[in-house]
Amino acid sequence: MAVAINLSFEEMWEKIIACDPKYDGLFFTAVKTTKIYCRPSCRSRKPKKINVKFYHDIDEVEKAGFRACKRCQPEVEDSPQLGLVRDIIAFLVNQYNQKVELKDIANHVGVSSYYLERLFKKETLETPRSYLEKIRVDKASYLLTSTSRTNLEICLEVGFQSPSNFYKVFRRLKNCTPSEYRNMNLKNRM
Where do the coiled-coil regions begin and end (predicted)? Predict the structure, then answer.
C-alpha cells in the first residue's frame, strides 16, 4: 500500500501539467474517458481536467479498471531501491512544513543517514535537502497564486526557517522573487 501524500486535486493537476517527475510513483493520473493511467511526468497529451481522477496506489488504479500508459509505463520500476526512494519522497512531501533533518528521514525509512543520502542522490541526482527545497518552493508558488497570505506567512507555512533563505531559494529555483512571481501570475490570469 502506497503512502498518501498531502496534495490537493489542484496541486496534483499542476504537477501533471508541468510534467513534474518529482512526484512519479507518489500518485497516478487516471483518465476516465480513455481508461488509461499515467505518471505525473508523462509527456502525452493532457486530458480535460473534468476527466481526471488521481490515485495514490498503483493496485488501486488497476482495480478501478484503468490500464497503464504505453508511453510512460507507470507499472515499470527502474531500480530495486525505487520503493525506498518513493518512501523518502513521500516523507518529504508530507513533512515539508516541518524542520526535517537527514537523521529524521533515515529513522523513518529505517536506513543509515549515509546510505540514505548516497542512494537518494544516485536515484534522483539531488540531495534530500535540495529536493525538499523544491517541494517547499512548489507549495509556496501554489499558495502565492491561490491565497492572499503575505510572503512571510507563506515562508513560515511551507517550512522555511528564515525569510532570507526563503527568498534566496525561491529566486534560485524560479528566477524571480515571490512577489514578482505572484504579480506575474495575477497578470496572466487577467
Answer: none
